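Researcher: Go.
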Amino acid sequence: MVLPARYAVAFPATGLDRMHRQYLRNGVIATLWARPDEVMLEHGAGGELLVAKIRAVLSGLILLLPLTASLGGAGSTETLIGLGMAVLVNIIAQVWLVLARDHRRHRWLPYATGTYDISATTVVLALMAWHDPAAGLNSIVVWCLYAIAIMVTALRNDGRLTLYVGGMAILQYAIVAAVMIRSSPETLASIDYGTVSTGGQIQRLILLLMTTLLTCAIVYRMQRLILQSGRDGLTGLPNRAWLLQHIPRLFDAARANGHTVTMALIDLDHFKRINDLCGHRSGDRAIRHISAFLSEVLGEHEQIARIGGQEFVMLLQGPIGSAWERLDRARRNLGQQPFHPERGAESFKLGFSAGLAAFPQDGADASTLLGCADRRLQQAKRDGRGRINARDI
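Model: Structure:
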């Protein structure tokens, strides 16, 4: 998205402060199990494509495993099973790669591919165990694919996926091990794969659990870092990356439902005077005060962003007329509330001016709407400030 030159550097889109407070209140598991926000989902979609590419490369390397096993003295039946599964795995890997290139259309893809990665490993182990029970339960190379499938979920930035894939790996391998140990206790030893023991299988399950927990910790850390990097440090509202990811989806939803979205560009009046007379600390308090005040105006699915200095962007649901009424009422209410810059200092009143632009009437993308709203804001300031301008004069 191309922004007007005036905002080329200073457009930190911001997410809602209540989202950040929710993350701080939640525990690790609650945070991991919560649906990621738009920035995390967007990064996760890129991670899904990366995983698909890695899967395609690894699938190609899997073709070497049965060939290497045959050179090492493996039986022809085992080699053929491995080769057939390797070819099938490569075909499916190419299908996943094609689907991952259109991630917005296939939101279910990470769960489908995670299920496939774990289930394919289980099927290979089961086929190996059918020919040689010890091979199915003591194979290190194939079993490690469980751990790899769990670890790569970290690239999707979705804790729910990590918990799901890790739980599935533990459950499926536990079932395979329990069935084979119970049904073929007398054949759980071979020259190539050694002797299968119940304790060894329990250790493998513990290792899968440890891998899942470690990957969850990585995902949790990534989620917190993305959240922190997407916030304005002074007000706690989301920043440019978050807003630029959110606006296209908001407009797509409005277009699909035939709704109108109003963008409001808001400027705190006489902010320089506040800094000059009261100091920058009081100016920061004024910014936090007005950001909290404007956040209370928001309804469901509405957003506010600080775009640097004393300016904010609000995305309001509904036509421009109703948005004008809400903001003008908020402007009057703000003017009636004295602001105390610090203890013992003389209070004064804050005010703001705003320019409004409606989607899709005034523009079909964020940069066009922002330019229109800025033009109307400048007119409101020229007319004496303390005004909400919703049309060109």
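Model: Confidence is low (pLDDT under 50) at residues 1-25.
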